[in-house]
């Protein structure tokens, strides 16, 4: 009889990276080594990225944390965490909302993608580091707080689940408004 071979274990976070350790140990999220530490998309969440000005407008428009789920800021990009699989739905959703060719500044990161890990809430770090605008709640269950298409149909979600359609439509609207404002600020080519 051959000896039992144990299954491979996930390597522990680098001993010197408290940010990576926090995500893996406190939230149970998959990470990739940095610097900076990276969060792996497509497993527990996907990411909707918009320019910061549009992202702040979305947050003002939608209001409560319950309407968006966790939100991060990294330089000039705001990242909304959405349900895993949403990145695959984005092109069709934008077409259905009639934003297909207009929402070029709106993009999604799904399976196999990475996003810079924001600093854990309340922890200092470099000024240029990504930060949480709306951090994930305590505990390991982030999925029920993420915007998803099933919020419309009630499939597997609670009645108060965030609505991916509303988030994407609002984000596309704000990205388009930002593009129009930037275009109107440019001098005319024939003047």
UniProtKB/TrEMBL annotation:
Top-level lineage group: Bacteria
InterPro entries: SCO3374-like
Species: Streptomyces luteolus
The protein, known as: SCO3374 family protein
């Amino acid at each position: 009889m051959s000896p039992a071979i144990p299954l491979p274990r996930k390597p522990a976070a680098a001993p010197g990276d408290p940010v990576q350790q926090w995500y893996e140990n406190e939230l149970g999220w998959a990470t990739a080594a940095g610097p900076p530490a990276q969060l792996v998309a497509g497993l527990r969440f996907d990411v909707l990225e918009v320019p910061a000005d549009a992202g702040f407008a979305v947050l003002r428009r939608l209001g409560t944390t319950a309407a968006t789920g966790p939100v991060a800021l990294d330089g000039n990009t705001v990242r909304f965490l959405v349900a895993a699989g949403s990145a695959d739905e984005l092109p069709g959703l934008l077409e259905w909302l009639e934003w297909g060719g207009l929402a070029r500044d709106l993009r999604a990161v799904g399976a196999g993608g990475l996003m810079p890990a924001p600093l854990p809430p309340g922890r200092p770090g470099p000024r240029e580091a990504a930060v949480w605008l709306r951090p994930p709640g305590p505990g390991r269950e982030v999925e029920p707080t993420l915007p998803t298409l099933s919020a419309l149909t009630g499939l597997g979600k609670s009645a108060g689940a965030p609505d991916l359609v509303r988030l994407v439509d609002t984000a596309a609207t704000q990205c388009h408004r930002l593009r129009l404002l930037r275009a109107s600020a440019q001098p005319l080519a024939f003047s």
